[in-house]
């Protein structure tokens, strides 16, 4: 059986179901509201696996699912050398969110990354410790800052309510995803730079390490035919 991993709840799950339905592939949760079981009709030999969006990259990389729907941000964050482990078969056009760096609005002379670099050096001289950036996107933020020559900072882990860390005094800046910008505005933060660190959206990914037997390849063929026809 070809195992297809999809987000188990919320908007991402609903939009994933709609996206496949538009392509003649019908995914459904079965059993009670709380039971994580599902069915697939419209293609042969496909088993639905309901998972947290954040776990789908790891399951793809381990080869425990053949295909998986999740945000491109989560694949980049959770998988080192992600291109060697998964392949994107399709952008899905939903789940849009930008990973951005933000600083307090009142830092009037900090608008760009090079301003941040200068502010970080000044911050260290003044406070005796490095400027703290709160995030759960450690890999992506480190890679991005390294590429842009910013070194005088430290990451502090924040798994939620990240925009609140500045007000709470546990960080000076944050890196998090934003979609409407409401949370940033409400917490008196402004985005640094012109372009986001990453513009994320949901993708259908294929595992490069799962066992692709004849049956799984045949099911994949049926799915890709449906995608091509849409
Ligand atoms: N406004 C938003 N808030 C949070 N995630 C968003 C938003 N817009 C799009 N996304 C995307 O949704 C995905 C995260 O989904 P979700 O929060 O369900 O995952 P999760 O981390 O597995 O959740 P949980 O741990 O609660 O099960 C990411 O790819 C993220 O970029
Ligand atoms: O730009 P906006 O539309 O305001 O959305 C951005 C917010 O949404 C996400 O949080 P979520 O509600 O998923 O909670 P968490 O990250 O704190 O778990 C994200 O971490 C931001 O806090």
UniProtKB/TrEMBL annotation:
CDD domains under this entry?
Answer: PBP2_HisGL3
Domain ATP phosphoribosyltransferase catalytic, by residue range, is 53-227
Any one cellular component term from GO for this entry?
A: cytoplasm
Concerning Pfam families, the annotation shows:
HisG (PF01634)
Q: Which InterPro entries match?
A: ATP_PRibTrfase_cat (IPR013820), ATP_PRibTrfase_CS (IPR018198), ATP_PRibTrfase_HisG (IPR001348)
Reply yes or no: does the keyword Membrane apply: no
Q: What class of enzyme is it?
A: transferase
Note whether Hydrolase occurs among the keywords: no
Q: In which pathway does it act?
A: Amino-acid biosynthesis; L-histidine biosynthesis; L-histidine from 5-phospho-alpha-D-ribose 1-diphosphate: step 1/9
Catalytic activity of the protein: 1-(5-phospho-beta-D-ribosyl)-ATP + diphosphate = 5-phospho-alpha-D-ribose 1-diphosphate + ATP
Q: The organism sits in which domain of life?
A: Bacteria
- Give one GO biological process term: L-histidine biosynthetic process
**GO MF annotations, alphabetized:** ATP phosphoribosyltransferase activity
EC number(s): the record gives 2.4.2.17
Keywords assigned by UniProt, alphabetized: Amino-acid biosynthesis, Glycosyltransferase, Histidine biosynthesis, Transferase
Q: What does this protein do?
A: Catalyzes the condensation of ATP and 5-phosphoribose 1-diphosphate to form N'-(5'-phosphoribosyl)-ATP (PR-ATP). Has a crucial role in the pathway because the rate of histidine biosynthesis seems to be controlled primarily by regulation of HisG enzymatic activity.
Q: NCBIfam families, from UniProt?
A: hisG
Query: Can you say what this protein is called?
Result: ATP phosphoribosyltransferase
Q: Which organism is it from?
A: Mangrovicoccus algicola
Q: What is the lineage of its organism?
A: Bacteria, Pseudomonadati, Pseudomonadota, Alphaproteobacteria, Rhodobacterales
